[in-house]
């Protein structure tokens, strides 16, 4: 019965993580459709740096994209990386994503070129990648380290997007997304549970 209960809980997490990520990506496509149908009216919610009122756009900017090609390039990595992180629990997942989004958005607001407008989920993607790569070392769990290294081997090439030099690409969102992912790995670290019989000895013994 115990094994059956654990298997059921595991299946429930997989379904919940899948549903959340499919819903998230579907929302991004709906928003893109609305944006294009209204003459890119939603792009006013992008981040323009160092204007106090633009701080309110840090969250919505991560849900908007500059066309089909932009969103297509983000869809698959967001689905995969987000799903893997969401398997750890949805409440924790939302906290991780919020941390990454805020850090990435603030970084853009502080450092992006004047009068630029930044939109897109790529900062979140970079943050999820950083979180998955580093969290195993933070939690000291071997299987998470192995998973992180596999993910790094598959997606590591996108890290070049965190370097300046690509016109029209917000390296600031990418770089600060990485910072947000590392920060989230420490903020949402999992404490290791002591094995039975290996707890600390009482004082004096």
Report the total helices. 7
Order of helices and strands: HHHHHHH
| Rg, nearest Å | 19 Å
Which descriptor suits the 3D outline?
globular
CATH-scheme architecture: Up-down Bundle
In short:
The chain is globular. With 205 residues, the chain is mostly helical. 63% of the residues lie in helices and 0% in strands.
What does this structure look like?
It is a single chain. The chain has 205 residues and is mainly α. It has one domain (7-187): Rhomboid-like fold. Helices cover 63% and strands 0% of the residues. The chain has seven helices and no strands. It has helices at 2-37, 58-61, 68-86, 90-111, 122-139, 142-155, 171-187. Helix 3 packs parallel to helix 5 (122-139) and helix 4 crosses helix 5. The chain is globular. It starts with a helix and ends in an 18-residue tail after the last helix. The model is unreliable at 200-205 (pLDDT under 50).
Q: How are the secondary structure elements laid out?
A:
Blueprint: H1 2-37, H2 58-61, H3 68-86, H4 90-111, H5 122-139, H6 142-155, H7 171-187
Helix pairs in contact: 1-3, 3-5, 4-5, 4-7, 5-6, 5-7
Labels describing this entry:
205 residues; single chain; Rhomboid-like fold; mainly alpha; 0% strand; disordered C terminus
């Amino acid at each position: 019965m115990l094994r059956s209960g654990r298997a059921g809980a595991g299946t429930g997490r997989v379904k919940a993580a899948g549903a959340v990520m499919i819903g998230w990506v579907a929302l991004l496509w709906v928003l893109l459709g609305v944006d294009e149908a209204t003459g890119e009216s939603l792009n006013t919610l992008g981040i323009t740096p160092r204007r106090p009122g633009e701080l309110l756009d840090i969250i919505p900017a991560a849900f908007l994209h500059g066309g089909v090609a932009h969103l297509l390039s983000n869809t698959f990595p967001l689905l995969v990386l987000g799903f893997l992180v969401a398997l750890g629990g949805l409440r924790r997942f939302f906290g991780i994503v919020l941390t990454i989004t805020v850090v990435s958005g603030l970084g853009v607001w502080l450092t992006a070129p004047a009068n630029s407008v930044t939109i897109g989920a790529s900062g979140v993607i970079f943050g999820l990648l950083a979180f998955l790569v580093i969290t195993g070392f933070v939690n000291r769990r071997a299987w998470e380290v192995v998973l992180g290294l596999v993910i790094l081997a598959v997606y590591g090439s996108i890290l070049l997007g965190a370097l300046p030099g690509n016109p029209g690409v917000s390296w600031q969102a990418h770089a600060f997304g990485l910072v947000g992912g590392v920060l989230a790995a420490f903020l949402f670290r999992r404490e290791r549970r002591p094995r039975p019989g290996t707890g600390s000895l009482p004082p004096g013994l």
